[in-house]
Amino acid sequence: MNNKYCAFRCINCPEGFNGPRCQMTHHTFWEGYSLYAPLAQCEDSTTSIEFVAKNPNGLIFYNGPVEDLTIDSPTDYIALSLVNGYPELQIDHGSGVMTLTLDGRDQNGQRFLQKLDDGRWHHVDITRRGRVRLKKT
Questions:
Q1: What is the Rg, in whole angstroms, of the alpha carbon atoms belonging to the chain?
Q2: I need a surface site. Which of 39, 89, 95, 104 has the fewest CB within 10 A?
Q3: Residues 6+ apart with CB under 8 A from 94
Q4: What is the SS3 assignment for 24-58?
Q5: CA dist., res. 17 & res. 11, Å (int)
Q6: Which of 98, 102, 100 is nearest to 89 (CA)?
Q7: pLDDT digits over 79-134, tens only?
Q8: Cα–Cα distance measured from residue 67 to residue 80, given in angstroms and rounded to the nearest whole number
Q9: Pair type for strands 86-92 and 77-83
């Protein structure tokens, strides 16, 4: 067999693992959380997350301190939550907390975004470009 692009693929993954190489590509929580190594703090970054939610209020993603803090500990964090079914992002990278919220309506009060607690998959990209703040139009 002469196949220079031969790909490895698992046939039977252990319970809790999936994907072509038995990776852990998703997690399910009814109550609880999972801890990972802290994300690198970059001036320019994009964090993408996909989730399914059935509860209108709750924490989707948090990256920041989880242990007891001392006076000199860094307190930078980023948190994505659902509040009444709509996304709310809180970020503090050392200059104070900034909160970005969506309520599903445009400037004229027209509904443009449905609630995200509908039991379907949703994709959110969180993009940071240094200290640039976008102006509302």
A1: 19
A2: 95
A3: 74, 75, 76
A4: CCCCCCCCCCCCCCCCCCCCEEEEEEEEECCCCCE
A5: 12
A6: 100
A7: 999 999 999 999 887 778 889 998 888 889 898 889 999 999 999 988 877 665 55
A8: 19
A9: antiparallel
Give the CA dihedral 40, 43, 44, 46, nearest 10 degrees: 40
The whole-angstrom separation of Cα 86 and Cα 104 is 7
Q: What is the mean pLDDT of the chain?
A: 76
Tokens representing 20?
A: 């072509």
Nearest to 118 by CA among 59, 48, 31, 55: 55
> Given a cut of 60, is residue 57 above it in pLDDT?
yes
Token pair, residue 16, equals: 């809790």
Q: Which of 47, 48, 58, 136 is nearest to 100 (CA)?
A: 136
For residue 80, the cross-strand partners are: 61, 89
Task: Confirm if 112 and 119 have CB atoms less than 8 A apart.
Answer: no
Q: Are 119 and 127 in contact (CB under 8 A)?
A: no
Token reading at 65: 């301190």
